[in-house]
Amino acid sequence: MLAFDWSSKNLSPAELPSVLPVAVFDRLILTGSKILHKEPNCVHIDKGSGLGPESKVVVVGDVHGQLHDVLFLLKDAGFPADNRFFVFNGDYVDRGAWGLETFLTLLAWKVFMPNRVFLLRGNHESKYCTSVYGFEKEVLAKYADSGKHVYRKCLGCFEGLPLASIIGDNVYTAHGGIFRSIAVTPAKRAKGKKNRKIVLNPSVSVLSLGSMEELLKARRSVLDPPWEGTNLIPGDVLWSDPSMKDGLSPNKERGIGLVWGPDCTEDFLKKLNLKLIIRSHEGPDAREKRNGMKPMDQGYTVDHEVKSGKLITLFSAPDYPQFQATDDRYRNKGAYIILEPPNFDIPVYCTFDAVTPRPRANPFYDYEDCIDSDEELDLAAMAT
Questions:
Q1: Which among 59, 189, 229, 341 would be 20 to 30 A from 73, CA to CA?
Q2: Does the annotation mark 124 as catalytic?
């Protein structure tokens, strides 16, 4: 942490290998990937994993390469420890100038304390987003001839990131949100064709909420979660958004995932016997474009309050995005949530301002022409 903080202020991006040589990167990414790939799609943080009456769980939202704010957050909340768990809700990279250092810092914590630090996947931990919003170019700029190798290894690690967590049997966290049930019906087998493969066709007539069993069976090891076919749950978990209008429908704004209302939050909490959903995925730029949704100026919003509990959106990148095309910045606060015993279901909100001054840095993407939020996706490019 100290080395990355120092290098961000004193070295050019191309000098990062003098701080973290490729050989050291390889050791870290390999060790971290092995740990992550062994974890289930939904990690459970409960008594079996050491959660006890003296424990606290810190939940963190999007951080988007804002290294110095992440370093502040870790110190402010208290570093991971035997009685302090961390759940990071994805989007470690892109837009900010230090996505690589941010992700590797958190990955090092994961390797150091694998049963106390949990890294979930965000929609930006994908090939498509990192090629559009700067992370790929950042890695190539920092590691030159070894850049493609480093980027490829990072993508492989991203594929291993779990999709969700259940904390204390009461709280569900995921980057985007809830997910659909994938009902499948076997195609008819032709007579006399014993070895013919049965093709499963997804039933798309009615959308309904998925089960924990379906979440655990989903195939998460994909560079870009598909928006069509039978493996839709990863895309739902990473890309979906809440709405103030009841119902469950395809997320037409993003072109992937779902939009769900308060009635679905109630049904999901009741179905899984939960009290709280904590998701991330929407910063001040995204919320500005969504009529009826609360602004993300304090780092969190309570979007749904229903009989069984609440839905919260948590965003941990203050003064976001780092690079903006207008002089009028959002100047939003960041936030993290602390969950405490005995039930870990009552959120304590901790807001914070951006660390100033940020070290000078150049963007790794064309932020003036690039859409701020992740709308209007180029699905053809994702497929490629």
A1: 341
A2: yes
For the chain, how many structural domains are there in total? 1
The pLDDT value recorded for residue 91 is 98
- Count of Cβ atoms closer than 10 Å to residue 55 Cβ: 21
Decide if 8 is inside a domain: no
Cα 350 to Cα 26, 198, 339: the distances in Å are: 35, 52, 11
Residues 6+ away with beta carbon under 8 Å from 21: none
48: which residues sit within 8 A by CB, 6+ positions away?
Answer: none
The H or E element that residue 335 is part of is strand 334-339
In a domain, 105, yes or no: yes
What parts of the chain have a pLDDT lower than 50?
188-190, 193-203
**Residue 94 located in a structural domain:** yes
User: How many angstroms separate the first and last alpha carbons of the chain?
Assistant: 36
CB 351 within 8 A of CB 334: yes
pLDDT value for 370: 75
Three-state DSSP state, 261: coil
**Pairwise CA distance, residues 297 & 244, whole Å:** 19
Q: In this predicted structure, what is the pLDDT of residue 255?
A: 93
Sign of the alpha-carbon torsion through 129, 36, 242, 92? negative
Query: 200-207 long-range contacts, Cβ below 8 Å, gap at least 24?
Result: 200/230, 202/229, 202/230, 202/232, 207/180, 207/248, 207/249, 207/250, 207/258
- pLDDT at position 55 is 98
Q: Looking at residue 24, what is its pLDDT?
A: 98
Catalytic residue among 44, 64, 68, 124: 124
pLDDT of residue 325: 82
Residue located via tokens 């659909």: 180
Q: What is the DSSP letter of 263?
A: H
Q: What is the pLDDT of residue 353?
A: 98
Write the pLDDT tens digit of every residue in 67-93: 999 999 999 999 999 999 999 999 999
Give how far the C-alpha of residue 120 lies from the chain's centroid of Cα atoms, to the nearest Å: 6
Contacts 24+ apart (CB under 8 A), 249-252: 249/207, 250/207
Tell me, yes or no, whether 192 lies in a domain. Answer: no
**Contact of 334 with 352, CB cutoff 8 Å:** yes
pLDDT in tens, 16-25: 999 999 999 9
